[in-house]
Amino acid sequence: MALSSKLRAGLLGIATGSITRNTSPQYSPKRTGHNEGVTMNRIPDAEVLLTPKEVAQRFHVNPKTVTRWAKAGKLTAIRTLGGHRRYRESEVLERLREYKESSS
């Protein structure tokens, strides 16, 4: 829900005329497609981390199953600052190889 500038000024305890929208070009970023023109610098030795959904897709299971595996100690989960689980790709690939060998 958008607040009017008059209401925002009242909530902040400042004069109505002092709130303005900055429309100068330097503050309005060019909108492009998803990640278009964005280059991310990766540390070469950085471990690739996967979300529970990505792990689940590789094993053809539900993401909740991946969470249960982590709680049971079958996979090591790394927690983000927001509390979300991430899994090391190297460990996931190793477990996937073991799974395929045992099912053969």
Secondary-structure blueprint:
Layout lengths: L4 H8 L36 E2 L1 H8 L3 H10 L4 E3 L5 E4 H15 L1
Antiparallel strand pairs: 1-3, 2-3
Helix pairs in contact: 2-3
Structural features, described:
The protein is mostly helical and 104 residues long. It has 4 helices and 3 strands. The protein has helices spanning 5-12, 52-59, 63-72, 89-103; strands at residues 49-50, 77-79, 85-88. It has a 3-stranded antiparallel β-sheet. The longest helix has 15 residues, at 89-103. The radius of gyration is 23 Å and the shape is globular. The mean pLDDT is 76.
Keywords, please?
single chain, 104 residues, mainly alpha, Multidrug-efflux Transporter Regulator, Chain: A, Domain 2, 3-stranded antiparallel beta sheet, 3 strands
Query: What is the helical fraction, as a range of percent?
Result: 25-40%
Series of H and E elements: HEHHEEH
Number of helices: 4
What is the CATH architecture term of the domain at 49-103?
A: Orthogonal Bundle
Number of strands: 3
Distance between the termini: 56 Å
Strand order, largest beta sheet: 1-3-2
- Taken as a percent bin, the fraction of beta residues is 5-15%
